[in-house]
Amino acid sequence: MTKIGILVGSLRRDSLSQKFAENMDVFFPETYELDMIEIGHLPFYSQDLDGEDYVHESFKLFREKVKEKAAFIFITPEYNRSYPAVIKNALDVGSRPPSENAWNGKPAAIISQSPGSYGGFGANHHLRQVMSAINLQVLQQPEAYIARSGEMFDEQGVLIDERTKKLLEKFSAAFVDLIEKHL
């Protein structure tokens, strides 16, 4: 079983990013298991919480979860032309110390979404920039910018937009190809 971790950049209870995350498993083969990795509980990264004599328990547990996964999907809204701090913090926690970078060399894919018309373009590209610094192998094509995301779900949170479903099918197939090259 190939395990993919999903990290959601919105902490809001009824977030659109969370809805996308909950709908992703249908786009992957049965031999893939998608697991949510909680990031909202992590304290902001500080070396005071990550020293030789003491490592915060949440950092230890988070790094172990990251190490267990073969690949990652980041689903993010756009905040002020970038991605939320909660994602940056998770990337920082997982990449420390640099000699034990839990993300190193693993495949990653980004879905950015926005209720507006740009689909989180700024967040998507800014996140790619940081991912390259910690050596995540980011899916290049197809890119997934999902605009008008507030109109995509029924009352139960099920993705109903056919055009977006087709995009996510292509996106997931390409991501599976990238993952298979890295296994």
What key phrases describe this protein's structure?
single chain, 183 residues, Rossmann fold
Give a quick summary of the entry.
The protein is α/β, with parallel strands linked by helices and 183 residues long. The protein has helices at residues 16-23, 57-68, 85-94, 121-133, 162-182; strands at residues 2-8, 32-36, 71-76, 107-114, 137-138, 144-147. Strands 1, 2, 3, 4, 5 and 6 form a six-stranded parallel sheet that branches.
Return the structural class: alpha/beta
> From the 3D coordinates, which CATH architecture would you assign?
3-Layer(aba) Sandwich
CATH H-level superfamily title: Flavodoxin domain
State the shape.
globular
Proportion of residues in helical segments = 25-40%
Task: State the CATH topology.
Answer: Rossmann fold
End-to-end gap: 12 Å
The strand count comes to: 6
Q: DSSP strand (E) fraction?
A: 15-25%
Number of domains: 1
Major sheet: size, sense and barrel closure? Answer: 6 strands, parallel
CATH class: Alpha Beta
How many helical stretches?
5
pLDDT < 50 runs, ≥5 residues: none
- Rg over alpha carbons: 16 Å
The succession of helices and strands, N to C, reads EHEHEHEHEEH
Write the layout of secondary structure elements.
Blueprint: E1 2-8, H1 16-23, E2 32-36, H2 57-68, E3 71-76, H3 85-94, E4 107-114, H4 121-133, E5 137-138, E6 144-147, H5 162-182
Parallel strand pairs: 1-2, 1-3, 3-4, 4-5, 4-6
